[in-house]
Structure formats: structure tokens, C-alpha cells
Amino acid sequence: MAQGDAHGAGRAAGGGLLRRAAGCRRTPHRPAISSAARHQRAAAELAVRERAKAFAALPSLEPVLLRFSDFCFGRRQPDLFDQSEDPDVVHCRMDAIAYYGAPRGVTPTLRDIGRAHLGDWGGPTGGDPDTGGVGGLRYALEYQRDKGRQADGLRLSEPELNDPSFTVEWDDPWDPAWRVQDPTPCPSPAPDGRCGLEPGGTTLAEARARYGTVSSVTFRSREYWTLSRQEWRRSHT
């Protein structure tokens, strides 16, 4: 993946996001062009790209694709559990998934991830190396060792690595039906944001044909910018 080209594309797309957000008909997105908003957005994107580069630096992973989506939208609607009015009139949120080829297979990749200390696999959905857990590194390695089966032959639960800010998944060599899903198509048109694959024209099918196994890192959706009603009113006075 050409990082320089990707960064340039991100900057260009980001400018489009802010310009399009300013023109939204129903939502007062114009303050999203402020320097503070641009700074927060750039910081959120840089954090994702740096983490994606850390995985790409592992000897067992080859970068394939990075899917970015970045949208601004208006107030949240009340729901069953929260009937209060949303104090913010603008929300900007970023999502990203990085895809990699794993030519050395799953077990060496998991060991490389563990040695590099790329995540915190503890907590209720993970399990540290001492306690295990379906979202922890220990369980993932045990699943590989046991070829996805219990001693009585029953299937084990599918493993993944759950960090508070991202989740790592991979093609299961013991269950061909369990594979990393293809990137979701971007909505079209997308008047309030940007969405795209870097680089374009590459598919997971091509990555599997080349590397054999595909892995993904899904970053938790991050709300990097909000604007309160009071702030919006001040910006229009």
C-alpha cells in the first residue's frame, strides 16, 4: 500500500467531506469546517493509520486494503432507553477496516501480534493470556492447536482478538465457511462524508489467491467531533 498516496487521497477526500457537510440542507454542518474540527478529524485519522501501519510492519502480514468512512450527521433521535434531547446538533464519526494478507498462516501471525504487543486482549470480551477467553490470544492459539475442535469432536467457538479500540479477525483454516467478509460497498451518493478503499481496484479474492489467508483489523467507530446547540448558535451570531 502506498502510504504517501493514501495520505494524499485522505487529505483530498477530507476537504470534500467538510465542503459537502457545509452544504447539507437539513443539518447545520457548516461549523465542521472550523480549524478545530479539521484538527480533530486529522488526529482521528492519523491514529487509525498509525495502528494499521503497525500491523503492516509485522513480518507475517502484508497490507492489502484500507476502507475508510467518515460522515457528519445531525442530532440523534430519542430511543426506548433515552428519551432526552440530543444536546449536540452535529456529530462526525469515523470508521475503518484494514485488510492484510497472511502468507505464513494464522498461527505465526497470531504469535507475531502477541510478540509485538499490538493490543490489550483482556476484559470481559477478551481474556488475557492467563485466563483465556474467545477474544483473547491464548484461546486463539489453542483453537489453532486443536484445529477448531473439542476433544469430543464438537466445534469450538470462533476466536478473534478483542482490544478496546479494535478487533482482529482472520480466515479460519478449520472452517472454510468462516472467512473475513468483503468490504461493505460505500453508499452512493454520500453527500455528508467520504467513503472509499485504498488502493482502489484490489479485492479480497485476489489477496486470497496471492497470500492464501486474509486477516482484518476493524477499528471501533469513533466520534471525533461534536457541536452543541449553543456552539452552533454562537457561530451564527
Lay out the secondary structure.
Blueprint: H1 3-22, H2 35-56, E1 62-73, E2 88-101, H3 106-116, H4 137-145, E3 161-163, E4 166-170, E5 193-198, H5 204-211, E6 214-228, H6 229-235
Antiparallel strand pairs: 1-2, 1-5, 2-6, 3-4, 4-6
Helix pairs in contact: 3-4
Q: What descriptive keywords fit this protein?
A:
237 residues, six-stranded antiparallel β-sheet, 6 helices
Structural features, described:
It is a single chain. The protein has six helices and six strands, in the order ααββααβββαβα. The chain has a six-stranded antiparallel β-sheet with strand order 3-4-6-2-1-5. A hairpin with a 2-residue loop joins strand 3 and strand 4. The N terminus is likely disordered. Helix 3 packs antiparallel against helix 4. With 237 residues, it is α+β, with helices and mostly antiparallel strands. The longest helix has 22 residues.
